């Protein structure tokens, strides 16, 4: 599904060039659950932006589902994000005065899906994410942190993406609630979803089946753990 070859990313400030990614090469197969782990400043967030089609590398190639994403323009990248990638962020990014179902259905509005069909797909995604059906019509600002993150996971699933990309998804949660959210990702992976988890925490990374360790813009270790 994912093939990265010699991915480099650099930023220029005046006459100074900072190399953030220094030639990363790896593949991720369909159905894998991979954690990309590294300390702050390691380059993992930059790599996440490239894998999520939010940015392109300075050099190297990135193929997602057989398509070379590394050479695309802004409009084509937006199409890739809409069709191929589901994002789960640390901050949830929900509309506070909208219902759970409406929050989850929002990407389907932009995709032009009829209202009745949107609600049906949204509810199915919420059930997939392990969300309590009794709370479907609650406003998102009436939910706990763990419930909000499950809504965010459901929203990421509604377009049936090839890749689920989770950026520090337990960062705003207590340990117990974080464990519940990570168990949700494990169940989704068992159902066949490809998941990439970005984290700086070893305890979080160990929930994946493979860990790619990054430091100073380089892969220092790639290990299967389950």
Give the tally of structural domains.
1
Low-confidence stretches: none
Largest sheet: 6 strands, mixed
Order of helices and strands: EEEHEEHEHHHEHEHEE
Looking at the overall shape, the CATH architecture is 3-Layer(aba) Sandwich
Overall spatial form: globular
Counting DSSP H or I runs of 4 or more residues, the number of helices is 7
CATH fold naming: Rossmann fold
What fraction strand? 25-35%
CATH class: Alpha Beta
Per CATH, the superfamily is P-loop containing nucleotide triphosphate hydrolases
Give the structural class: alpha/beta
Q: Separation of termini?
A: 20 Å
Record the strand order, biggest sheet: 6-7-8-3-9-10
Arithmetic mean pLDDT: 92
Number of strands: 10
Write down the Rg. Answer: 18 Å
Helix content: 25-40%
Secondary-structure topology with pairs:
Blueprint: E1 2-13, E2 16-28, E3 33-37, H1 44-51, E4 59-64, E5 67-68, H2 74-84, E6 85-89, H3 100-110, H4 115-128, H5 145-157, E7 163-167, H6 175-190, E8 194-199, H7 202-205, E9 210-215, E10 218-224
Parallel strand pairs: 3-8, 3-9, 6-7, 7-8
Antiparallel strand pairs: 1-2, 1-4, 4-5, 9-10
Helix pairs in contact: 3-4, 3-5, 4-5, 5-6
